[in-house]
Each structure stands twice: as C-alpha cells, then as structure tokens.
Amino acid sequence: AQSVAQPEDQVNVAEGNPLTVKCTYSVSGNPYLFWxxxxxxxxxxxxxKYITGDNLVKGSYGxxxxxxxxxxxxxxxxxxxxxxxxxxxxxxxxxxxxxxxxGQGTExxxxx
Amino acid sequence: xxxxxxSPRYKIIEKRQSVAFWCNPISGHAxxxxxxxxxxxxxxxxxxxxxxxxxxxxQLPKDRFSAERLKGVDSxxxxxxxxxxxxxxxxCASSQGTLAASTDTQYFGPGTRLTVL
Lengths: 112, 117
Fold this sequence. Notes:
The complex is a heterodimer of chains A (112) and B (117).
Chain A: E1 3-5, E2 10-14, E3 19-21, E4 24-26, E5 32-38, E6 44-50, E7 56-58, E8 64-68, E9 73-78, E10 87-94, E11 100-102, E12 106-111
Chain B: E1 5-7, E2 10-13, E3 19-24, E4 31-37, E5 44-50, E6 53-56, E7 65-68, E8 75-79, E9 88-95, E10 107-108, E11 112-116
Parallel strand pairs in B: 2-11
Antiparallel strand pairs in B: 1-3, 3-8, 4-5, 4-9, 5-6, 7-8, 9-10, 9-11
C-alpha cells in the first residue's frame, strides 16, 4: 500500500536554530512528493515539491527539502527558524491521476 | 490571482440533517478535489473531478455524500443525512492540468468546518 509517515507529532525549536520535519514514504514507481503548511483555521498552503532532478528542492519562505531515494525520505528543512513558522506541516505523495496521500501532520512550535 | 473560494466557513447542524458546501476553483483550473480532514489527521480525498466528469470517487460514502461540478467550474458537496462522524473540515482544491497529472500542484481553499451535534 502506498503511504506517507511523519514520525514526529510535534517538533520544538528555538528561534534562529535550524529545523527539520521528517517524512518517509512508501510508493511503487517514481515518487512525487509535496510539503504543505496549515495555519490555524486556514487551508493548506503549498511549500515545495519534488518531481525529478536535484535532490535538494527549494521552496517558499526559505524552506527546502531533501529527497533521499535510498532512505525513502523527504525531510523538510530550514536553516534558521522563525516564530511565524509555527504551524502544522503535512507531507504528501501524489499518485497516478493526482490523488494526494497525506501524512498525519507534524506540529512545529518555534519559541522565541 | 484569486485563490480557491469556499463557503460557508463554518457550519453547525444536528445529526440526520443535510448540509451543502460550495467551492469555486482558481480560474482555468481543470481539476477539482474535495478532501475531508478529521481533527488530528491529514486530509483524505473524497472525490476528484476533471472538468465536469468524475475521475475518482472511490472514497466517497455514496449512501450519504454526493458531489457535482456543473459546467466544469463550481462544485457542490452535499451530505444527507449527516452523522456525528462527519464532523471535520472539508477542503476544496484545484489544479491546472487537464490530464490530472500527478506532478501538478494542488491549491487549497480555506475549508469549511462542519460540526455535527
């Protein structure tokens, strides 16, 4: 079965420190991977996606993600966290036809 | 560019009542999706339209849920009768591709929060 896992329900980071939100996937064929962010009472906002090519993908608001085929991972990273980055982050894999399968989400808390 | 619009933003109903949600996708986007997001979980696809045709409704509880996309633009999702377990956020998304490509980015609306009492 095709799936996405986010092993951490919550990640706590101090402002200015680097952050990592983890994601692993299980799919047959080439994986197309996405990261979305959700602020309270808001819809999901697209951050970045990996389709093919360079394993390091750069996205919005200074976020980037590293695709690792051997470890079947697609971790989201940012060199220096901001308090305003505090939100719920979802990793997703796109199946044939465009259907997204989401992880359960990781709550990121950045403290001043 | 205007984003995906949804209404209402919030709805509270009693079980066994009916409810309808409306979605207006980004102009020109051929593919429209409805997702259900239960508290503490990631969104789950309910139905996918390509223009005004259904591509995937395998996860839609068809005994109580229905959806349509007349004229290939706006869409309506209906629940009748509602159950307690339908309490969730209903998200509408759209993507540009006409082939429902798995590489297309989906853009989400703000969602409708449904509470069933």
